[in-house]
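Checklist before submission:
- one chain only
- standard amino acids only
- sequence pasted in full

Submission:
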Amino acid sequence: MKDSELPWAKGAEQFQQIFGQSWAQALQSLRKIDLGPMLPAAPALKFSPAKLQELQQQYLKDVQALWAQGLQGKPEIKDRRFAGEGWASNPVAAFTAAAYLLNARTLMGLVDAVEADEKTKARIRFGVEQWMAAVSPSNFLAFNADAQKKAIETQGESIAKGIQNLLHDLRQGHVSMTDESLFEVGRNVATTEGAVVFENELFQLIEYKPLTAKVYERPFLMVPPCINKFYILDLQPENSLIRYAVEQGHRTFVVSWRNPHEELAHKTWDDYVQDGALAAIDVVRSITGADQINALGFCVGGTILSNALAVLAARGDDPVASATFLTTLIDFSDTGILDVFIDEAFVKFREMQMGNGGLMKGQDLASTFSFLRPNDLVWNYVVGNYLKGETPPPFDLLYWNSDSTNLPGPFYAWYLRNFYLENNLVQPGKVTVCGEKIDLNNLTLPVYIYGSREDHIVPINAAYASTQVLPGQKRFVMGASGHIAGVINPPAAKKRSHWLREDGKFPPTLKEWQAGSTELPGSWWTDWSAWLKAQAGKQVAAPKGYGKGAKFKAIEPAPGRYVKEKA
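Returned file contents:
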Protein backbone atom coordinates (compact mmCIF):
# COMPACT_ATOMS: atom_id res chain seq x y z
CA MET A 1 0.00 0.00 0.00
CA LYS A 2 1.34 3.45 -0.91
CA ASP A 3 1.88 6.05 1.80
CA SER A 4 -0.81 8.23 0.23
CA GLU A 5 -3.32 5.40 0.67
CA LEU A 6 -2.70 4.97 4.41
CA PRO A 7 -5.66 6.11 6.59
CA TRP A 8 -3.58 8.55 8.58
CA ALA A 9 -2.16 10.08 5.41
CA LYS A 10 -5.63 10.63 4.00
CA GLY A 11 -6.62 12.15 7.32
CA ALA A 12 -3.64 14.47 7.16
CA GLU A 13 -4.57 15.60 3.65
CA GLN A 14 -8.15 16.27 4.75
CA PHE A 15 -6.87 18.10 7.83
CA GLN A 16 -4.62 20.35 5.76
CA GLN A 17 -7.43 21.02 3.29
CA ILE A 18 -9.74 22.03 6.14
CA PHE A 19 -7.20 24.40 7.61
CA GLY A 20 -6.37 25.76 4.17
CA GLN A 21 -10.04 26.57 3.76
CA SER A 22 -10.06 28.08 7.29
CA TRP A 23 -7.20 30.37 6.28
CA ALA A 24 -9.04 31.56 3.18
CA GLN A 25 -12.29 32.07 5.11
CA ALA A 26 -10.51 33.97 7.89
CA LEU A 27 -8.85 36.27 5.38
CA GLN A 28 -12.11 36.89 3.55
CA SER A 29 -13.98 37.52 6.83
CA LEU A 30 -11.41 40.00 8.05
CA ARG A 31 -11.55 41.93 4.79
CA LYS A 32 -15.28 42.46 5.42
CA ILE A 33 -15.15 42.73 9.19
CA ASP A 34 -18.15 44.32 10.92
CA LEU A 35 -17.10 45.92 14.18
CA GLY A 36 -20.59 45.73 15.63
CA PRO A 37 -23.25 48.32 16.48
CA MET A 38 -21.02 50.22 18.93
CA LEU A 39 -18.27 50.81 16.36
CA PRO A 40 -18.29 52.32 12.88
CA ALA A 41 -17.94 49.97 9.91
CA ALA A 42 -14.39 49.42 8.75
CA PRO A 43 -13.49 50.26 5.14
CA ALA A 44 -12.28 47.52 2.80
CA LEU A 45 -9.02 46.39 4.31
CA LYS A 46 -5.62 46.06 2.71
CA PHE A 47 -2.86 43.84 4.02
CA SER A 48 0.92 43.98 3.86
CA PRO A 49 1.81 41.33 1.23
CA ALA A 50 5.07 40.47 3.01
CA LYS A 51 3.38 40.04 6.41
CA LEU A 52 0.55 38.08 4.82
CA GLN A 53 2.92 35.66 3.12
CA GLU A 54 4.95 35.21 6.29
CA LEU A 55 1.80 34.65 8.34
CA GLN A 56 0.42 32.08 5.87
CA GLN A 57 3.68 30.16 5.88
CA GLN A 58 3.76 30.17 9.68
CA TYR A 59 0.12 29.09 9.80
CA LEU A 60 0.70 26.07 7.56
CA LYS A 61 3.81 25.19 9.54
CA ASP A 62 1.86 25.34 12.80
CA VAL A 63 -0.94 23.26 11.28
CA GLN A 64 1.51 20.53 10.38
CA ALA A 65 3.06 20.66 13.87
CA LEU A 66 -0.38 20.46 15.46
CA TRP A 67 -1.28 17.44 13.34
CA ALA A 68 1.98 15.74 14.32
CA GLN A 69 1.29 16.42 17.99
CA GLY A 70 -2.22 15.04 17.53
CA LEU A 71 -0.80 11.79 16.14
CA GLN A 72 1.66 11.44 18.99
CA GLY A 73 -0.61 12.39 21.85
CA LYS A 74 -2.11 15.44 23.55
CA PRO A 75 -1.08 18.84 22.14
CA GLU A 76 0.59 21.20 24.58
CA ILE A 77 -1.87 23.92 25.65
CA LYS A 78 -1.01 26.92 27.83
CA ASP A 79 -4.33 28.66 28.41
CA ARG A 80 -6.23 28.53 31.67
CA ARG A 81 -9.56 28.16 29.87
CA PHE A 82 -8.38 24.67 28.87
CA ALA A 83 -6.33 23.77 31.96
CA GLY A 84 -8.85 21.43 33.63
CA GLU A 85 -8.59 17.67 33.94
CA GLY A 86 -11.42 17.16 31.45
CA TRP A 87 -9.42 18.79 28.67
CA ALA A 88 -6.22 16.99 29.65
CA SER A 89 -7.86 13.53 29.61
CA ASN A 90 -9.75 13.99 26.34
CA PRO A 91 -7.50 14.03 23.24
CA VAL A 92 -10.29 15.24 20.96
CA ALA A 93 -11.10 18.14 23.28
CA ALA A 94 -7.44 19.03 23.65
CA PHE A 95 -7.02 18.98 19.88
CA THR A 96 -10.10 21.23 19.45
CA ALA A 97 -8.67 23.72 21.95
CA ALA A 98 -5.28 23.73 20.26
CA ALA A 99 -6.85 24.29 16.84
CA TYR A 100 -8.91 27.18 18.23
CA LEU A 101 -5.83 28.81 19.78
CA LEU A 102 -3.93 28.45 16.50
CA ASN A 103 -6.73 30.16 14.57
CA ALA A 104 -6.96 32.87 17.23
CA ARG A 105 -3.22 33.60 16.99
CA THR A 106 -3.44 33.72 13.22
CA LEU A 107 -6.39 36.08 13.19
CA MET A 108 -4.53 38.43 15.53
CA GLY A 109 -1.58 38.16 13.17
CA LEU A 110 -3.89 39.18 10.33
CA VAL A 111 -4.87 42.26 12.32
CA ASP A 112 -1.20 43.20 12.64
CA ALA A 113 -0.84 42.78 8.87
CA VAL A 114 -3.60 45.30 8.13
CA GLU A 115 -2.35 48.47 6.46
CA ALA A 116 -4.30 51.19 8.23
CA ASP A 117 -3.93 53.95 10.80
CA GLU A 118 -3.48 52.95 14.43
CA LYS A 119 -7.05 53.76 15.47
CA THR A 120 -8.53 51.60 12.71
CA LYS A 121 -6.19 48.76 13.62
CA ALA A 122 -7.12 49.11 17.29
CA ARG A 123 -10.81 48.89 16.41
CA ILE A 124 -10.28 45.81 14.26
CA ARG A 125 -8.16 44.24 17.00
CA PHE A 126 -10.89 44.92 19.55
CA GLY A 127 -13.55 43.39 17.30
CA VAL A 128 -11.48 40.28 16.57
CA GLU A 129 -10.63 39.84 20.27
CA GLN A 130 -14.34 40.00 21.14
CA TRP A 131 -15.17 37.49 18.44
CA MET A 132 -12.42 35.06 19.39
CA ALA A 133 -13.32 35.27 23.08
CA ALA A 134 -16.97 34.54 22.29
CA VAL A 135 -16.37 31.52 20.01
CA SER A 136 -13.93 29.71 22.32
CA PRO A 137 -14.88 26.01 22.56
CA SER A 138 -14.81 26.40 26.34
CA ASN A 139 -17.98 28.52 26.09
CA PHE A 140 -20.13 25.69 24.69
CA LEU A 141 -21.31 22.58 26.51
CA ALA A 142 -20.89 20.53 23.33
CA PHE A 143 -17.14 21.22 23.39
CA ASN A 144 -16.27 21.96 27.04
CA ALA A 145 -14.74 18.73 28.31
CA ASP A 146 -14.63 19.95 31.92
CA ALA A 147 -18.34 20.80 31.92
CA GLN A 148 -19.18 17.45 30.31
CA LYS A 149 -17.10 15.60 32.89
CA LYS A 150 -18.85 17.42 35.73
CA ALA A 151 -22.29 16.71 34.24
CA ILE A 152 -21.49 12.99 34.16
CA GLU A 153 -20.06 12.96 37.69
CA THR A 154 -23.10 14.82 39.11
CA GLN A 155 -25.58 12.82 37.01
CA GLY A 156 -26.83 15.98 35.34
CA GLU A 157 -27.19 18.02 38.52
CA SER A 158 -24.62 20.58 37.34
CA ILE A 159 -26.67 21.21 34.18
CA ALA A 160 -29.86 21.69 36.20
CA LYS A 161 -28.06 24.09 38.55
CA GLY A 162 -26.62 25.93 35.55
CA ILE A 163 -30.10 26.48 34.15
CA GLN A 164 -31.22 27.81 37.54
CA ASN A 165 -28.23 30.19 37.57
CA LEU A 166 -29.06 31.37 34.04
CA LEU A 167 -32.69 32.08 34.92
CA HIS A 168 -31.57 33.94 38.08
CA ASP A 169 -29.16 36.12 36.10
CA LEU A 170 -31.80 36.84 33.45
CA ARG A 171 -34.10 38.10 36.20
CA GLN A 172 -31.42 40.31 37.79
CA GLY A 173 -30.21 41.62 34.43
CA HIS A 174 -26.50 40.75 34.59
CA VAL A 175 -24.10 37.82 34.85
CA SER A 176 -23.28 37.03 38.49
CA MET A 177 -19.60 37.51 39.29
CA THR A 178 -20.01 36.71 42.97
CA ASP A 179 -22.70 35.51 45.35
CA GLU A 180 -24.41 38.87 45.79
CA SER A 181 -26.77 37.53 48.45
CA LEU A 182 -23.88 37.45 50.93
CA PHE A 183 -23.23 41.22 50.85
CA GLU A 184 -25.14 44.20 52.13
CA VAL A 185 -23.95 47.80 51.99
CA GLY A 186 -23.56 49.07 55.54
CA ARG A 187 -23.47 45.57 57.06
CA ASN A 188 -20.37 43.88 55.66
CA VAL A 189 -19.14 46.46 53.10
CA ALA A 190 -18.91 50.24 53.66
CA THR A 191 -18.81 49.85 57.44
CA THR A 192 -16.51 52.68 58.58
CA GLU A 193 -18.43 54.61 61.23
CA GLY A 194 -19.78 58.02 60.29
CA ALA A 195 -22.89 60.04 59.53
CA VAL A 196 -24.51 61.89 56.65
CA VAL A 197 -24.28 65.62 57.51
CA PHE A 198 -25.59 67.15 54.28
CA GLU A 199 -27.55 66.12 51.22
CA ASN A 200 -28.96 67.61 48.06
CA GLU A 201 -30.49 65.93 45.01
CA LEU A 202 -27.06 64.89 43.65
CA PHE A 203 -25.09 63.64 46.67
CA GLN A 204 -24.88 62.99 50.37
CA LEU A 205 -21.85 64.21 52.31
CA ILE A 206 -20.57 61.72 54.89
CA GLU A 207 -18.41 62.78 57.84
CA TYR A 208 -16.46 59.95 59.45
CA LYS A 209 -15.91 59.50 63.18
CA PRO A 210 -12.33 60.38 64.23
CA LEU A 211 -10.18 57.47 65.37
CA THR A 212 -7.52 59.71 66.94
CA ALA A 213 -7.66 62.14 69.86
CA LYS A 214 -6.39 64.93 67.61
CA VAL A 215 -7.01 65.69 63.96
CA TYR A 216 -5.30 67.96 61.46
CA GLU A 217 -6.84 71.42 61.28
CA ARG A 218 -7.28 71.19 57.52
CA PRO A 219 -10.15 68.75 56.76
CA PHE A 220 -9.97 66.20 53.98
CA LEU A 221 -12.62 65.68 51.26
CA MET A 222 -12.79 62.66 48.94
CA VAL A 223 -14.62 62.92 45.60
CA PRO A 224 -15.10 59.39 44.23
CA PRO A 225 -16.31 58.58 40.72
CA CYS A 226 -20.03 58.83 39.95
CA ILE A 227 -19.63 55.71 37.80
CA ASN A 228 -20.08 52.91 40.37
CA LYS A 229 -20.23 53.79 44.07
CA PHE A 230 -17.95 55.33 46.67
CA TYR A 231 -17.53 52.23 48.83
CA ILE A 232 -14.75 50.90 46.61
CA LEU A 233 -12.80 53.15 48.99
CA ASP A 234 -14.36 51.40 52.01
CA LEU A 235 -14.83 47.72 51.19
CA GLN A 236 -13.44 46.23 54.39
CA PRO A 237 -11.71 47.78 57.44
CA GLU A 238 -8.38 46.26 56.42
CA ASN A 239 -8.38 47.69 52.87
CA SER A 240 -10.40 50.89 53.33
CA LEU A 241 -8.67 54.03 52.09
CA ILE A 242 -11.31 56.05 53.92
CA ARG A 243 -10.56 54.35 57.24
CA TYR A 244 -6.83 54.70 56.58
CA ALA A 245 -7.19 58.47 56.13
CA VAL A 246 -9.20 58.69 59.37
CA GLU A 247 -6.57 56.62 61.21
CA GLN A 248 -3.87 59.04 60.00
CA GLY A 249 -5.65 61.87 61.83
CA HIS A 250 -7.55 63.52 59.01
CA ARG A 251 -11.08 64.81 59.60
CA THR A 252 -12.51 62.98 56.61
CA PHE A 253 -15.56 63.72 54.46
CA VAL A 254 -16.71 61.71 51.42
CA VAL A 255 -19.14 62.49 48.61
CA SER A 256 -21.68 59.70 48.09
CA TRP A 257 -23.22 60.33 44.66
CA ARG A 258 -26.89 59.59 44.10
CA ASN A 259 -27.75 56.85 41.61
CA PRO A 260 -29.73 58.96 39.14
CA HIS A 261 -33.14 57.91 37.87
CA GLU A 262 -35.60 59.72 35.61
CA GLU A 263 -36.00 62.72 37.94
CA LEU A 264 -32.28 63.50 37.47
CA ALA A 265 -32.07 62.57 33.77
CA HIS A 266 -31.65 66.25 32.82
CA LYS A 267 -28.54 66.88 34.94
CA THR A 268 -25.42 68.23 33.24
CA TRP A 269 -21.68 68.25 33.80
CA ASP A 270 -22.04 71.77 35.22
CA ASP A 271 -24.54 70.46 37.77
CA TYR A 272 -22.10 67.84 39.01
CA VAL A 273 -19.35 70.43 39.34
CA GLN A 274 -21.44 73.23 40.89
CA ASP A 275 -23.94 71.26 42.99
CA GLY A 276 -21.57 68.36 43.56
CA ALA A 277 -17.87 69.08 44.08
CA LEU A 278 -18.14 72.83 44.70
CA ALA A 279 -21.07 72.37 47.08
CA ALA A 280 -19.16 69.68 48.98
CA ILE A 281 -16.10 71.92 49.34
CA ASP A 282 -18.29 74.74 50.65
CA VAL A 283 -20.11 72.53 53.16
CA VAL A 284 -16.88 70.99 54.52
CA ARG A 285 -15.50 74.50 55.11
CA SER A 286 -18.73 75.59 56.77
CA ILE A 287 -18.81 72.60 59.12
CA THR A 288 -15.15 72.74 60.10
CA GLY A 289 -14.57 76.49 59.99
CA ALA A 290 -11.42 75.91 57.94
CA ASP A 291 -10.29 78.47 55.38
CA GLN A 292 -8.83 75.72 53.22
CA ILE A 293 -9.29 71.97 52.86
CA ASN A 294 -7.37 69.14 51.19
CA ALA A 295 -9.20 67.21 48.47
CA LEU A 296 -8.87 63.92 46.62
CA GLY A 297 -10.49 62.86 43.34
CA PHE A 298 -10.60 59.30 42.05
CA CYS A 299 -11.13 58.45 38.35
CA VAL A 300 -13.94 60.62 36.92
CA GLY A 301 -14.27 62.11 40.43
CA GLY A 302 -10.79 63.49 39.86
CA THR A 303 -11.84 64.99 36.54
CA ILE A 304 -14.83 66.63 38.26
CA LEU A 305 -12.53 67.90 41.03
CA SER A 306 -10.06 69.36 38.51
CA ASN A 307 -12.92 71.24 36.85
CA ALA A 308 -14.17 72.52 40.22
CA LEU A 309 -10.68 73.76 41.12
CA ALA A 310 -10.36 75.51 37.74
CA VAL A 311 -13.76 77.19 38.24
CA LEU A 312 -12.66 78.39 41.69
CA ALA A 313 -9.38 79.70 40.26
CA ALA A 314 -11.26 81.60 37.54
CA ARG A 315 -13.36 83.21 40.28
CA GLY A 316 -10.25 84.18 42.24
CA ASP A 317 -10.96 81.74 45.07
CA ASP A 318 -8.60 79.11 46.51
CA PRO A 319 -10.39 77.10 49.24
CA VAL A 320 -8.46 73.93 48.42
CA ALA A 321 -4.87 73.78 49.68
CA SER A 322 -3.84 70.57 47.91
CA ALA A 323 -5.32 67.98 45.58
CA THR A 324 -4.72 64.26 45.10
CA PHE A 325 -5.64 62.68 41.76
CA LEU A 326 -5.95 58.88 41.68
CA THR A 327 -6.08 57.23 38.23
CA THR A 328 -7.58 60.42 36.78
CA LEU A 329 -7.84 61.62 33.20
CA ILE A 330 -7.18 65.34 32.79
CA ASP A 331 -5.31 65.22 29.48
CA PHE A 332 -7.42 62.90 27.30
CA SER A 333 -4.81 62.44 24.55
CA ASP A 334 -4.44 58.75 25.43
CA THR A 335 -7.66 57.08 26.56
CA GLY A 336 -6.49 53.53 25.98
CA ILE A 337 -8.86 50.85 24.76
CA LEU A 338 -11.90 53.10 25.27
CA ASP A 339 -10.68 55.15 22.31
CA VAL A 340 -12.03 52.48 19.94
CA PHE A 341 -15.55 53.76 20.69
CA ILE A 342 -14.87 57.46 20.28
CA ASP A 343 -15.35 59.39 17.06
CA GLU A 344 -17.60 62.18 15.80
CA ALA A 345 -20.35 59.81 14.63
CA PHE A 346 -20.53 57.94 17.94
CA VAL A 347 -20.55 61.10 20.05
CA LYS A 348 -23.16 62.74 17.81
CA PHE A 349 -25.33 59.64 18.15
CA ARG A 350 -25.15 59.84 21.94
CA GLU A 351 -25.95 63.57 21.82
CA MET A 352 -29.01 62.92 19.68
CA GLN A 353 -30.03 60.00 21.91
CA MET A 354 -29.64 61.60 25.34
CA GLY A 355 -27.97 65.00 25.07
CA ASN A 356 -31.15 66.81 26.13
CA GLY A 357 -32.33 64.27 28.67
CA GLY A 358 -32.39 60.57 29.40
CA LEU A 359 -30.16 58.08 31.16
CA MET A 360 -27.05 56.15 30.28
CA LYS A 361 -28.07 52.92 31.96
CA GLY A 362 -25.72 51.50 34.56
CA GLN A 363 -25.91 48.00 33.11
CA ASP A 364 -24.84 49.29 29.69
CA LEU A 365 -21.83 50.98 31.27
CA ALA A 366 -21.00 47.88 33.31
CA SER A 367 -21.21 45.64 30.23
CA THR A 368 -18.91 47.95 28.28
CA PHE A 369 -16.26 47.85 30.99
CA SER A 370 -16.62 44.05 31.42
CA PHE A 371 -16.10 43.43 27.69
CA LEU A 372 -12.80 45.31 27.85
CA ARG A 373 -11.59 42.06 29.49
CA PRO A 374 -14.07 39.52 28.08
CA ASN A 375 -12.36 36.29 29.09
CA ASP A 376 -11.91 37.36 32.72
CA LEU A 377 -15.09 39.36 33.32
CA VAL A 378 -17.66 37.73 31.03
CA TRP A 379 -17.01 34.27 29.62
CA ASN A 380 -15.28 32.98 32.74
CA TYR A 381 -18.58 33.43 34.60
CA VAL A 382 -20.72 32.12 31.73
CA VAL A 383 -18.76 28.87 31.85
CA GLY A 384 -18.70 28.56 35.63
CA ASN A 385 -22.28 29.67 36.33
CA TYR A 386 -24.15 28.06 33.45
CA LEU A 387 -22.10 25.21 31.97
CA LYS A 388 -20.74 23.90 35.28
CA GLY A 389 -23.57 25.01 37.57
CA GLU A 390 -21.21 26.64 40.05
CA THR A 391 -21.97 29.49 42.43
CA PRO A 392 -19.20 32.10 42.18
CA PRO A 393 -17.32 32.59 45.46
CA PRO A 394 -17.98 35.68 47.61
CA PHE A 395 -15.77 38.61 46.67
CA ASP A 396 -16.53 42.12 47.88
CA LEU A 397 -14.73 43.82 44.98
CA LEU A 398 -16.86 41.99 42.41
CA TYR A 399 -20.00 42.75 44.42
CA TRP A 400 -19.10 46.45 44.15
CA ASN A 401 -18.33 45.99 40.45
CA SER A 402 -21.84 44.61 39.88
CA ASP A 403 -23.51 47.44 41.85
CA SER A 404 -23.82 49.68 38.81
CA THR A 405 -24.95 53.30 38.53
CA ASN A 406 -26.79 55.27 35.86
CA LEU A 407 -25.51 58.55 34.43
CA PRO A 408 -27.63 61.51 33.31
CA GLY A 409 -27.59 61.66 29.51
CA PRO A 410 -26.64 65.37 29.18
CA PHE A 411 -23.73 64.84 31.61
CA TYR A 412 -22.51 61.80 29.68
CA ALA A 413 -22.85 63.32 26.19
CA TRP A 414 -21.06 66.55 27.20
CA TYR A 415 -18.28 64.56 28.87
CA LEU A 416 -17.76 62.44 25.75
CA ARG A 417 -17.52 65.39 23.37
CA ASN A 418 -15.52 67.88 25.40
CA PHE A 419 -13.05 65.46 26.93
CA TYR A 420 -12.85 62.10 25.15
CA LEU A 421 -13.38 63.44 21.62
CA GLU A 422 -12.02 67.00 21.65
CA ASN A 423 -9.71 66.98 24.72
CA ASN A 424 -10.76 70.54 25.52
CA LEU A 425 -9.77 70.54 29.18
CA VAL A 426 -6.07 71.03 28.43
CA GLN A 427 -6.70 73.86 25.97
CA PRO A 428 -6.81 77.16 27.92
CA GLY A 429 -10.15 78.90 27.59
CA LYS A 430 -11.58 76.29 25.19
CA VAL A 431 -14.23 74.90 27.53
CA THR A 432 -16.68 76.76 29.76
CA VAL A 433 -17.83 75.15 33.02
CA CYS A 434 -20.27 76.82 35.43
CA GLY A 435 -19.97 80.02 33.44
CA GLU A 436 -16.16 80.16 33.70
CA LYS A 437 -13.57 79.59 30.98
CA ILE A 438 -11.28 76.83 32.21
CA ASP A 439 -7.51 77.30 32.30
CA LEU A 440 -5.50 74.64 34.14
CA ASN A 441 -2.52 76.99 34.18
CA ASN A 442 -4.25 78.76 37.06
CA LEU A 443 -4.12 75.66 39.28
CA THR A 444 -0.98 76.42 41.24
CA LEU A 445 -1.81 74.31 44.31
CA PRO A 446 0.37 71.27 45.24
CA VAL A 447 -0.85 68.01 43.69
CA TYR A 448 -0.19 64.31 44.27
CA ILE A 449 -0.79 62.22 41.15
CA TYR A 450 -1.13 58.44 41.18
CA GLY A 451 -1.32 56.10 38.16
CA SER A 452 -1.54 52.30 37.92
CA ARG A 453 0.92 50.63 35.57
CA GLU A 454 -1.54 48.09 34.10
CA ASP A 455 -4.61 50.35 34.11
CA HIS A 456 -6.80 49.72 31.04
CA ILE A 457 -9.25 52.57 31.80
CA VAL A 458 -6.82 55.38 32.65
CA PRO A 459 -3.58 54.28 30.94
CA ILE A 460 -0.46 55.01 32.93
CA ASN A 461 0.80 57.41 30.23
CA ALA A 462 -2.44 59.36 30.57
CA ALA A 463 -2.14 59.55 34.35
CA TYR A 464 1.43 60.80 33.99
CA ALA A 465 0.30 63.39 31.41
CA SER A 466 -1.32 65.36 34.25
CA THR A 467 2.20 66.32 35.39
CA GLN A 468 2.60 68.25 32.14
CA VAL A 469 -0.57 70.34 32.45
CA LEU A 470 -0.72 71.12 36.18
CA PRO A 471 1.83 73.85 36.96
CA GLY A 472 2.06 73.64 40.77
CA GLN A 473 4.36 71.55 42.96
CA LYS A 474 3.87 67.92 42.03
CA ARG A 475 4.57 64.42 43.23
CA PHE A 476 3.91 61.49 40.92
CA VAL A 477 3.82 57.84 41.89
CA MET A 478 3.28 54.80 39.72
CA GLY A 479 1.81 51.70 41.33
CA ALA A 480 1.72 48.11 40.13
CA SER A 481 -1.47 46.39 38.95
CA GLY A 482 -4.65 47.87 37.47
CA HIS A 483 -7.28 50.57 37.84
CA ILE A 484 -8.73 49.31 41.12
CA ALA A 485 -6.22 46.82 42.55
CA GLY A 486 -3.41 49.35 42.20
CA VAL A 487 -5.32 51.98 44.18
CA ILE A 488 -6.73 49.64 46.85
CA ASN A 489 -3.39 48.38 48.14
CA PRO A 490 -3.12 48.86 51.93
CA PRO A 491 0.35 48.82 53.53
CA ALA A 492 -0.47 45.91 55.85
CA ALA A 493 -1.03 43.61 52.88
CA LYS A 494 2.63 44.03 51.85
CA LYS A 495 1.71 43.49 48.21
CA ARG A 496 2.92 44.81 44.90
CA SER A 497 5.30 47.75 44.56
CA HIS A 498 5.43 51.38 43.50
CA TRP A 499 7.85 53.74 41.77
CA LEU A 500 9.00 57.20 42.88
CA ARG A 501 11.44 59.79 41.61
CA GLU A 502 12.96 62.11 44.18
CA ASP A 503 14.77 64.68 42.01
CA GLY A 504 11.56 66.65 41.37
CA LYS A 505 11.89 66.39 37.59
CA PHE A 506 8.94 65.64 35.31
CA PRO A 507 10.27 65.06 31.79
CA PRO A 508 7.80 65.02 28.86
CA THR A 509 7.26 61.26 28.78
CA LEU A 510 6.64 58.55 31.34
CA LYS A 511 9.49 56.52 29.88
CA GLU A 512 11.92 59.33 30.66
CA TRP A 513 10.47 59.70 34.16
CA GLN A 514 10.86 55.97 34.76
CA ALA A 515 14.53 56.12 33.79
CA GLY A 516 15.18 58.18 36.92
CA SER A 517 12.69 56.42 39.21
CA THR A 518 13.21 53.85 41.95
CA GLU A 519 11.04 50.79 42.56
CA LEU A 520 9.96 50.39 46.19
CA PRO A 521 8.21 47.35 47.67
CA GLY A 522 4.68 47.53 49.06
CA SER A 523 1.96 50.17 49.06
CA TRP A 524 2.15 53.77 47.89
CA TRP A 525 -0.29 54.78 50.67
CA THR A 526 2.49 55.52 53.18
CA ASP A 527 4.23 57.92 50.79
CA TRP A 528 0.93 59.67 50.05
CA SER A 529 0.12 59.86 53.78
CA ALA A 530 3.42 61.59 54.53
CA TRP A 531 2.81 64.04 51.67
CA LEU A 532 -0.76 64.78 52.80
CA LYS A 533 0.28 65.39 56.42
CA ALA A 534 2.66 68.08 55.20
CA GLN A 535 -0.35 69.86 53.63
CA ALA A 536 -2.69 69.39 56.61
CA GLY A 537 -1.55 72.03 59.12
CA LYS A 538 -1.28 71.66 62.88
CA GLN A 539 -3.22 69.16 64.97
CA VAL A 540 -6.28 70.17 67.04
CA ALA A 541 -8.68 68.33 69.30
CA ALA A 542 -10.94 65.92 67.42
CA PRO A 543 -14.62 66.96 67.24
CA LYS A 544 -16.99 65.27 69.68
CA GLY A 545 -19.87 64.97 67.24
CA TYR A 546 -20.87 65.14 63.59
CA GLY A 547 -21.66 68.19 61.54
CA LYS A 548 -22.30 71.63 63.03
CA GLY A 549 -25.42 73.05 64.62
CA ALA A 550 -28.92 72.60 63.29
CA LYS A 551 -27.98 73.32 59.66
CA PHE A 552 -25.51 70.46 59.36
CA LYS A 553 -26.79 67.92 61.87
CA ALA A 554 -26.43 64.18 61.43
CA ILE A 555 -29.19 63.03 59.06
CA GLU A 556 -28.56 59.27 59.20
CA PRO A 557 -25.66 56.87 59.88
CA ALA A 558 -23.06 56.18 57.19
CA PRO A 559 -23.09 54.94 54.50
CA GLY A 560 -26.45 56.68 54.02
CA ARG A 561 -29.35 55.74 51.76
CA TYR A 562 -28.16 57.19 48.41
CA VAL A 563 -25.50 54.50 48.04
CA LYS A 564 -28.12 51.78 48.51
CA GLU A 565 -30.22 52.87 45.54
CA LYS A 566 -30.01 50.37 42.68
CA ALA A 567 -29.70 51.24 39.01
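Reviewer check: The two ends are 71 Å apart (CA to CA).
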